[in-house]
Amino acid sequence: MKMVVTGGAGFIGSHLVDGLVARGCEVHVIDNLTTGDPGRLHSEAILHVADVNSQQTTDYLALLKPDVVFHLAAQADVQRSIADPYEDADTNVLGTINILEACRKSKIRKIVFASTSGVYGDLEKEQLTEDDPLSPISYYALSKMVGEQYIRLYSRYFGLGYTILRYGNVYGPGQTAKGEGGVVAVFGDRLKRSEPFTVYGDGNQTRDFIFVKDVVEANLASIDQGNGQTLHVSTGRRSSINELVSQLTALHPEPVDVRYLPPKQGDILHSCLNNDRTKAVLGWDAETSLAEGIAKTYRSWFQA
Ligand code: UDP
């Protein structure tokens, strides 16, 4: 099968490309390389450097006519979206519309979209479900929510197949602290530079940390399953920042200083996504425990 991954030179995208190549797919990547790194692309993937909202991207999709488009390219920095909502919407909303128009014109079967737990805003529940109300509190999450809805309407009007995957807090090898963010990558950076960890608040806030390989598996399962569905890609488990700190300090041979700072404004306390529907629909499960995923990620930081 022929696949296109937008944002395929990014953290999650490059892992997905590896997974698709391993499955024997012909893989094309559309990436403008603003945060993407061609160095992490699988040697068998074919890179097309272009913005998602460009005519060039439309032309590539018309030429390639892939079986599935995995649309991961995005402006993914929450703070940046607040500083520059125009740029965020340009990439995330207009970019998604451009991909959808190209899918329609080129009669592409299916789009698999990377969305976020951020669409629920600061709604706190023991576990969020896909039917909970959406109330984004950043322009980034808002632009993802709008992207989702455009996809549903393209499906309704033009019969485009889709699976929307709302990710928890993704971590793993290859994630960078800048741009792609993420507390695990930030802590990795600190360890590499022998700098202290900074924890905002008391560290008891929790997130649903999902290992990148499990995210890849959910995307692969979406090639043939989950049509018309919106699904969580998550563990359904809460892990605190303090737990992260203790796992990383236990792995590190040198002592690590931990500094507690005042809580960050707007930081949500708990985020956990129920994954029952994803398990039922995709026959998928989050297979990597936090301890296992953190150990793999830690090893990747100190590989020669
Ligand atoms: N966090 C922290 N120290 C850091 C970076 C992040 O204590 O150096 C905390 C942050 O305040 C939040 C949690 O880790 O409560 C997860 O942050 P991240 O930016 O990874 O994800 P998000 O808040 O978007 O879920």
UniProtKB/TrEMBL annotation:
Annotated ranges, domain NAD-dependent epimerase/dehydratase: 3-225
Any Pfam family: Epimerase
InterPro entries, per database record: Epimerase_deHydtase (IPR001509), NAD(P)-bd_dom_sf (IPR036291)
Classification via PANTHER family: DTDP-D-GLUCOSE 4,6-DEHYDRATASE-RELATED
Recorded family membership: Belongs to the NAD(P)-dependent epimerase/dehydratase family.
Record-given protein name: NAD-dependent epimerase/dehydratase family protein
Species whose genome carries this gene: Paenibacillus campinasensis
Record lineage: Bacteria, Bacillati, Bacillota, Bacilli, Bacillales
